[in-house]
Amino acid sequence: MRLAEIALQRSRYARCQIIDAAAHAQEHRYVDGVWAGGPADFEIHIGQLSVELVLRAYTKALAEAEKRFPGFTDCTFADGPDVGERRIVFPHNRQDMAAVFMWNRISEIVESGEIQLAERFSIRSWEPSWPDETGSNYLVDVLLDRPAIDEATWQEVCGVVAGGDPFPVDTEPRTCDVGVIQRMITELSFPELVLINWDMARKPLRPVDRALLRAARRCDPDEVAAVLAQGADANATTEFAETPALNVVTYEPWTGPEPRQGRDPLDRETRPSLSSLDRRIACLEALFAGGAHIDYADPFGPTLLERAAHIYDADMVEYLLDKGADDSLAGALEDTAGTSPSAWSLAFTDREFARIRAMDFASLGTDEERTENARRVRELFRARRWAPDGTPPGDVRYREARNNVP
Questions:
Q1: Can you give the residue ranges of every domain in the chain?
Q2: CATH no. of 204-400
Q3: Burial (CB count within 10 angstroms: exposed 0-12, middle 13-18, buried 19+), residue 298
Q4: Is the pTM of this model over 0.85?
């Protein structure tokens, strides 16, 4: 069972949620071996019994909550009072009652043994969509009652199956410890619901907002001002976390012979050009005058200062700092440690790593020029953090950027 295939869409706005449901899907691996006396290719899936049991209990509790509190996940999104803020709005109070019901019901289902599972091993043949002449193909599904599916478990299962034997399992029905529920289930706040559903919560772009984004990609100050006068949102955000101001910071005039075939030249991946500083500043001034916030960022994107520091655009960093940009803001989401680096942190990462990253932005010049820009960026940050006698700050605390800025 995979929750993503059964209940993920129905539960996306429920406050009672599986923690990282995608991570609880069964992992799979491919191995070669023999089966029924002939060569075989296996696609092996191994699941953890306690995880599947909780997923089944969650699915059952969700179905019961939908009957008891019909429409409890019905919602809309609306603007909040802060710049870029989006709020989830439920038309009634069934959401809170359903969350309490689901949490209690899941615990009851597991503790009472209402749902029990046994270990299992199953294998079936299947025909892949690609030609394969190396042997028969088999899908193998294994469910084990183990604390974790670690590498040793994978080696054990794959070794037995590849050798042509079914993996031995215990067919006695069982339940799981209630502690598994506490590790897998959580109750989300409304802001957390907004964040995990940001693809739906993000403010839709109007035609005039798209026109502003295109004007910003052209880095045309007059066109930017004209579109803003038509009512465009200066903080409009695309699904790729682009804002008009972010497009301006990374602007570079098109220098190639022709855009790639089938691509709008305005949809190219932009690069910064230091020679265009005055033009970019004129555009940013128009955007700030039209309501763009200097520290605003999509939850999945960088602030303007983060981006400028990342590419060591020293002139832009200096301009943004002089305008009051906050160098301690960090993005709310990142693939690695949960928060992306602040602009300050980016400026003081390892010099070689920073140089390699900056190489993506060829218009910033030679290695020597990029190294000099990196030195200038660090000095700009030091001038605002260090004491006049050169003493570094004893404790620089960074705060996470919200998806709104007061």
A1: 3-199, 204-400
A2: 1.25.40.20
A3: buried
A4: no
